[in-house]
Amino acid sequence: MMRMYVSIIWVSILRFRLIGRKHYIDLVGCCLLTTPIKYVVLIMVYILEGVVRRQHPTEKHLKLSEVKTLLDKEVEIRNSHTELSYEKPDPLLIASKYQDESIALVCALFAYGNAGLIVKFLDSFDFSLLESSDETIIKELSSHYYRFQKSEDVSAFFIALKRLKSVESIENIFYAGYKKEENVLDGLWYFIETFKKVHPYKSRGYDFLTASVPKKVSAAGTYKRYMMYLRWMVRKDELDMGLWSKIDKKDLLMPLDTHTFQVSKRLGLLKRKTYDMKASIELTDTLRTFDEKDPIKYDFALYRLGQEKLH
After folding, report:
1. How many CA atoms lie within 13 A of 309 on its CB side?
2. Domains in the chain: boundaries
3. What confidence tens digit (pLDDT) does each residue in 42-93 have?
């Protein structure tokens, strides 16, 4: 227990130096600390305000070594099942219940928009449909739609996943593209091509959901939902499921969303101003200087920091 309190206090000091008193008080007010600890931390804020102004009057960024310390502590604190709940919704909450690569892909690719609504939508699925006939899938999902996807798009996605399972595992398909150069993007492009072939359905909503292979990486988006899926499948800790064994976690790329993009720039981890695959690669390269064997372990911590308005 004492170790946890020390970690909270240490991270509090670094967070305060990063974001200032007003945003920090807002954060403390909404976090899930017990009331006595909140009071202690808030008292620290007012003490630290004077100390920081005297010692760091013009500082805008933490030093990179301090950022690493902050993120290492955040990873330690966040690496817990308590980070996945209906009070702190995340699509990994639903994926973790099933421990299945196909269901996890559904959870990952529908993971855009409000986190609470994502979890509510995923909770509405009967995933046993992935073993059912095309006709049953279409009938049972006739009232399921989500943002850009109509019910026809949702049904087509389930049908494609069901057919894919009869061809090969998702892991083996990714690995077939990845293994030559140990490049996860090559694995992703091969998977997308294979996925499109098993059920050549096409619509605007379906194409947004499943994505397509870019003409060149330099013009590619972040493919955040696929990168997040790979993190879930490849890494193994209290959060990530680690269902795969053929892809090395050192080769993963950051699942860059707008929260992570903004907080990474604020922390000085990312210089690129454009939100794209180049930014994801740049951020990953920076994080490899923190941990070359597992750079993506910082993803969930950065995501939560951004989600909690630390940008």
Report:
1. 12
2. 2-60, 91-307
3. 555 445 544 444 444 434 568 899 999 999 999 999 999 999 999 999 999 9
